[in-house]
Design goal:
Length: 80
Amino acid sequence: MADVLRMTDRPVADICFAVGLQSVGSFTTSFTGIFGKAPVAYRESFPPAAAHARVPLCYVQFFGRPQRSTNGEDATNAPS
């Protein structure tokens, strides 16, 4: 749970719901009890998550492009 909080810039509420809790207050209380800091204070003690995300531009371009082409290449009735 702490690694997710440290390695992302997602809001604490999103992480709370992603781990299955329904209350941000309960999440904050549990997190503080386990790690000794509130989630926001814990996150502030590390560099921003963007500093960890070093993805080569070629990967970003390849995986960020649209998956379906609109020029008919994906048609199932294409001549063989």
